[in-house]
Structure formats: structure tokens, C-alpha cells
Amino acid sequence: MADDSDEGKNQSRGPHDASRRRFLKGVGIAGAGAALADQLLIEAQAQDTKPKDVRTLSGNVDVTLNVNGQRRKAKVEPRTTLLSALRDHLEPAVTGPKLVCDMGTCGACTVLLDGKSAYSCLVLAVDATARQITTVEGLGGPDAMNAVQTAFVDKDALMCGFCTPGFVTTISAYLKKNPNPSLDQVREACKGNFCRCGTYPRVFEAALAAAKSVNRES
Amino acid sequence: MQQAPPKKKKVRVPRVVNGVETMVEIEVDDVGGPSWGPNDKHTLLNHHLRRVDGPLKVSGVAEYTYDKRLSGMLHGRVLGSPHAHARVIKVDTTAAGRIPGVKAVVSITDKPVQPAAAATGVEKPAEPKGTFVHFAGEPVAAVAADTPEIAQDAIQAIKVEYEVLPHVVRADEALKETSPKVYPDGNLKPRDSQGYATRVAAAWDKCDVIIEAEYRTPIIHHASLETHGHVVDFRGGDTATVYASTQGTFTIPGDAAKELGLKESDVTAIVEHMGGGFGSKFGIGIEGQLACRLAKQAKAPVKLMLTRRDEFLLAGNRSGSWQKFKAGATKDGTLVALQALQYQLGGLSDGSQAGQPYIYRVTNSYRERFAVFTHEDSSRAMRAPGHPQASYAIECLMEDLADKLGMDPLEFRKKNLRDKVYHRQLDRGAREIGWDRRSKPAGGAAGPFKRGIGCAVGTWGGGGNNQCKVDVTISRDGSVVVAVGTQDLGTGTRTYTRAIVAEELGLQPKDIIEKIGSSALGSANASGGSTTSASLAPSVKNGAYKARIAVAEKVALLLGGVKPEEIKFADGNVSGGGKSLSWKQACAALPAAGVTAQGLWQVELSATGVHGVCFAEVEVDVETGRVRPLKMVHVQDIGLPLNRLAVESQINGGMIQSLGMALWEERVMDARLGIQLNPGFGDYKLPGTAEMPELVAIIDDDDKREAVIGVGEPAIIPSVGALANAVFNAIGIRVHDLPITPDKILMALTNRRATT
């Protein structure tokens, strides 16, 4: 990653660590460390109705997420990722960030946490309550696109479009930090995003064109 | 009274057989209708058009199947077998069903599912009564629950008892007599043969140079970013809507109706936007069958999108290949004899491979094709099924022969390619890449970083057929709607559909509304084999033309009674007889219902058969074995390019996907366990931004055909061979199996040092 401060995207240690998230997400209580699981069960409002022979790490927590400047309430589980909270638990859903790999390898779920890009599939929803969450929808709508979005359309930097929200978000955040990137810096900044249709050269073009247009305006 | 049969007319259309193009005369109904006109005279088509759905996609507003959220919708999950071959003794779903929030559980022991692809002409396994799984990951059960988290818990609570049976997942092992048999007849199935083995045998004496070689390509994955899946909106009752991530809107209702117990006409399929398919998404597949069963059981909508892991394990793949050659040429570079043994490695299905010697002219050739079966998920069509495999192998062989003859590989190819279009394209590509800079001899450059340049050639049919019905409606307020049930896979269908109508009516794309992606609209073909645009575009053109004539007839009087066919539609105006009306003024003259025309396919607006060449330059670090792609050039003819921007994007995409196939991608199997070891993007290496070379996509405008063909498949065919040959040119040694990873390069270099 060009910017080591970006969370989740550099497989960093700490509360957003991939291994912890996958651990919580993937295993039932039987397989989880007892201390950690107990703590989470206390956090959650464990349901009494659960049959005794099936032990699952379920139970809901009320959270308020600050998404694109709006306070949004949702019921999630301790193991619910921020990505799943946005897509599956908020009503109405926020589906710009895409679920593609669900393990922090492809970048399609990229959002901004307090302005820094992060894989939302590697962040637990309960850990994101104090953050300003910006999704691609928050960067600009179809009738009011930001410079990166406009450049993506102009340069045909998308085909099926499933990776596009991730790329747009990553690049929008990156240009804030580095308004005059070189081609190699753009490649480096997007290393954490995959596209399968094969739009990379035009994604690079779009990023460079967006940088130019922003600089012209300012 | 019966109608008189339509008048006939003769048209000349191009046909390409084995890469050689000839014009043939065919007879078609003379229905009048439009022609495209010269390729350089268009006002919108053949220009750089922005994608009309671009703003929706860059802002996250475009709604894909995966994004669908319906009220009361449940989330589905699939449980796959951990064994490559087993009898399913018992599926115990009791515990799963008791988890609060679980609304439906189905198992294949209740009712088997139909695989998405299967081998043809083979006897089904003669196994005793019971339920069997034949590859690791094959679905055994599925659940639907209130949340994805609960669905995951439920899957983990299902207990399955298996009797594990012997398996085979490697082609070379499958060919052994002692191997477990995938089908009762065995693991080797002859597919076809062509040519005369005896003539080839007699021709070896005439060759000055003979080489024997084999080339292999592994099974690779489509890796569409949107996984396979559906949202089945069925709440009991007589109708259902199925949102599908599919390449064929009209392939969904029939399959779904069968599962739901409804009439096909009562099921509507919706494909608003879809996140990639590359050949893997036709019909509802196993996951769709399970989603329907869950919805039916729960009487509630079910979203079942495969997880990434399941996508790798059970959603198809590109068949691998193993091709053995003996080939000979004379000193002047003429191919005299070629013998090929081609194995198609398609897991449980046939796989695919274009026949050798592909597009090359060889005086005496003989080839045999076989399918080799293994306990692996069935292969499916993947972008130009069978062609990258065949092109890669023959292009390596051509390069190796040219090298042995001491001939320029470009001249060697020209000598053996009859079709002059290839000669033109090879010259163009050679100029662009700087062919003269290539390493002579191969591997001859000094120092540890060795650069090399390679080239290769490909062909594809494409073309269209009569499957699209396009409705063009013009209303009195001037609004124009073009409606057809087709789908846009990211190929730009929406954009050119609008542009064709806009150009015909003298308007701009923004003035047109396109409605696609619904089986309730006019029929359209599935997007496979690069046939979408050659089927759809002529039908859209035909509909737009008819609508224009209908408007002209209504406004002729306003323009002083000019003949309708003499009225001009341009720049937003309708003019004739020295008078001019704005589009809105003209449309105000329409009847209250406006005008509607139905567009049908016209054969002469489409063509088949394309040529493409690719050149690649790489740098190989002979100390680490790392290959760095530097530049790729692809030259492609496609008749009339509907949207140059989208065509260039597709050519770029073909080159990038071939980079993956040539250098990084491979399904890695554990032979003993029979499971895939890399079913995720962490371990399955896709091309990324860091590896991107400079890419040059060139549309061959010397192709003057005024016809639409299609470019999806051709863009991926020659580039794999070009990359492999660039590596050969850099290091002077052939790596005989893909992907060309550092370990193979280091091994090849070590072996050479050992033998010299």
C-alpha cells in the first residue's frame, strides 16, 4: 500500500485485524476462545430461546453507524462485518460497497473510515460506531459525480462495474493525500483492488485525469 | 388467405473457415430495410461513446442481483461436500432447522440437483442406488435464514455422513488403467479426429526439421467479481420474479419454473446489471435450483449468492489442456507434416479445445481429440472456449519450429498463413512493438534481466442469428424508448442500443431510453460466443429504421408532401422539401399512441469471422525467475466497431485475462485429498494493477466490412501464446506448461545448465 496508515488494507495488527474478524465470523462458540466468546456474549443480548444443543455465536447488538453523514441504526451481531451491516442490516441498504471476496483481498468493499480507505469486510460493525463512514454513494451521485467518478465515465474505466465503487473510493481518498500522483504511484495506490474485466489501464488514465481536473479547479 | 412467400434477394457475406475468409453468396428475404453504410460515415457509431450506465455504476447506484433487498427476504447458503467422490449416507438437518431464524433447509438426498454442465455421450456412473457427490464442493444441502450470519450457523450445524470413495483429480493419473473410473467406460473418451495419419507418417521423410513437443494449460477460473446467484421472489402463489446474475435473461424462467412448479410464462427474469460472467453464467445452475427450493419451502424470497469459495469450487472453470505434437517443415519454412494428440481436461465434462493445426496450413496433418475425465467440477464455456488453449500450443510449436529452422518467426508464420489479413495485422503489430528489437538468438541478451518479444495469431467466428425482437416506441412528446430483454455484461449493450437508435433518428444517446434485462421484454439471445452484438445490433437498427419510416410517413404532409424516404433525420431535426421541423415538432404530428416498430434481425447487417494478432514484450529476471510483462499490442478486425471506447476496453480486457492464464492463474488440486487448495483470491493469483504492462489495443480499420461481428472472445485468444513466446525469446528455453511461474523458469534454466 502506498499509505501504510490505511486500515485493514495492509493486513495490520490491531482491532481490525483480518484474523480476528475471520475467527469471529467463521466459528461457532465451541471453536472460539472461551474468554473472548464470553465477553462478546455479554456484549450481545444473548437470546434464551436458543436450543441447548446448538451453540452459536448469535445475539444482536444495537448500533448506530454514521454513514455518509447520516446516523443510521441497525441490529447487528458482534461478528457482523461493517460491509454486511451496510448491505444486509441497514434499512434501506447501502450497497455501493460490494461483497466479492469477503477476506480482504479484492478491494470491492472499500469505504472511507474518517477519510482513510479501509476494506469494510475486515472491520466489524461494532468497531465502526465511532467512525465517519463514507461509501461511494457519499462521494457523489449519478447527477453530481466527483472528479474521479466523472473521469471513470469519460475514460471508460469500467465494464461490468462490480469493482468500480472500490476503485473510485480508493482513488478519491488517495488523490486527497497525493494530488499529483505519477502513473506508478496510482498503480501502487490501487494494488489492493482487483478488476476481472480488465479495466486497469483506463483506471490509471481516469485517476490521472481526475487529478488534473481537480488541480485545475483549485 | 395465405400470404405470398416473401421475395428473395442474394447478398454476399464473409465466412471464415479455419481462419481463411471467403465471400459467399446467400439468399435472404427481401424485406427492404436499412444498411449500416460505410464505417467512416457514422455520426455516433464507430466513435468513442461514454457508457450510458457509467454514472450509475461509478456512484454505487446501479443495482446488481447481489444488491437486491426485498421485504422479508431470506439469505441462502450452500453446504458442499468435502470429498471428491463419496456416497451421501445421511444428511441430518434437524439441528440446523431448530436454529431460530432458519426458515428452510433442503438436501440433495430429498431431491437431486442437475449439474450446470455434463459430459456428453457417456454413460452415467453405474453406481448403486443412492446419492453421490463427484467433486469436492458439490452441494449437499442448502439453508435459508433471516440473516447471512444465521445461515452460516445453520450450514455448520448440518451433519452429513459420507462413505468416501476413491477419486482421481489429475489427468495423467486418470489415464492409468488402475485409476478409479469417473464414468463406467473409463476416463478417456475419444471426441473426434481429422486428417490422414498414414499421409502424415509418409511425409516425415520430406521434412528437413522435425520437432516433438507437448504443451499443457491448467484449469483456470472465470472469477467473475459478482458470484453466481439469484434472488428468487416467490411467496407461494402463481407467479415469481427471479433476479439473476446471468448472461442469458431468457435462460432463467424455464429452469426456475420447473423448480417452482409454475408455468414458464409466469416467471419473469430480471438482469438489470451484472458483475461479469465470461461464459460461466447460463441457466440457473445448481445454486439456482437450490434457491428456488428454499423459496418454495419458506414461501418467502430467497437470496442465494455463492460465497467466493463456493464460486471457485462449483461454478465452473476453463478446461485445461494437454497437447502432444510432432511437426516438421522444410528448410524454406513450409509446414509439411503435423500430428497432434489433444486431451481436453474438463473435470466431469467434456472440456473444449479448437482442433489443430488451428489456423495454419499444413500439407499433411492428423489430429485426435479426447476428453479426460476427473473428479472435478465440470468445465464451462469460458471466453473463447477451447481457443486460447489451442492457439497457445500451436503458436509455441510454430515459434519452436522457426527457432530450429533459424527463421524469423514472423516470416515463418506468414509462409504458413494463407489469409492476407493476418499478414497485414502482423506487420502492423510488429511495427508497434518494435519487432526488430527482439533477442537474436533467443536468450542471447547479456545480464540477468533478459528481454524478449513474441507474437501469436487467433481467429473466432462470432456472428449473429435471428433471436432478437426489439421494440422501438416514439411518443408524441418526442420520447423514444427502445426495449429488448437482452443483458449487459459490461460489454456496453445498453450504450450501443441507444446509440443505434439515436443515430438513425438524428438524435443523441441521451435522448433515448433503453429498457433491457427483463424476460418480459422482447426476446434476445444469451450472451455467448461473441454473438450478442451481431444478433442484437442489426435488430435494433431494423427497428429504429422502421420507426423512422413510420414517423416520416406521419410528417410528410407537414413538410409539403415530400416522399417519406426522402425526409432527413439529422441534428435533432426532421427536414425535407426545403422545410425543417424540430424533433419535438415532428413527433407532435404523431397519433395519440405514437408509433411503435418491431425490429428483427437482418443477416446482411452482421458478419462472422475475425482475425487478431498479439505481440508481447517481457523481461525475465533469470536469477529469480520473475517475469515482468512490459508491453502488449493486440490488432483486431471486427467489421463495424459500434463503440470504439468499449471495443478497446474489451481488447484490453482480453490481454489482461490472458496475462493471468499465461503467467499466474491455476487451479491447484491436492491429488490425495481431491480438493482445491486455492479457492480464494488470496491464493488464486489474478492480474493486478502492479503487474500491468503498457497495453495497446488497435482496431484494424482496414477491415471495411459494413457489418457487426463481436469482439469479446477474439480479444483473449492470441495473447497467451504471444506472452509464452516472449518468455522463450527472452531466455531461449521453452517452459512447456502454463502458468509460466518463476519456479518453472528456474528449473528450465537449471536443466539447460545441466545438459550443456
If you had to describe this structure to a student in words, what would you say it looks like?
- The complex is a heterodimer of chains A (218) and B (756).
- Chain A is an alpha+beta fold and 218 residues long.
- Chain A is 36% helix and 11% strand.
- Chain A contains 8 helices and 5 strands.
- Chain A has helices at residues 18-26, 34-43, 82-89, 136-139, 147-155, 164-177, 183-189, 200-217, and strands spanning 61-67, 70-76, 110-113, 116-119, 132-134.
- In chain A, β1 and β2 form a beta hairpin.
- In chain A, α5 packs across α8.
- In chain B, the strands form 8 sheets. In chain B, strands 5-7-3-14-11-12-13 form a 7-stranded mixed beta sheet, sandwiched between helices.
- In chain B, α12 links the parallel β20 and β21 (512-515).
- Chain B is globular and about 90 Å long.
H/E series of chain A, N to C? HHEEHEEEHHHHH
Low-confidence stretches of chain B: none
Q: State the total count of DSSP E strands of chain A.
A: 5
Radius of gyration of chain B over all CA atoms, rounded: 28 Å
Q: Any idea what the shape of chain A is?
A: globular
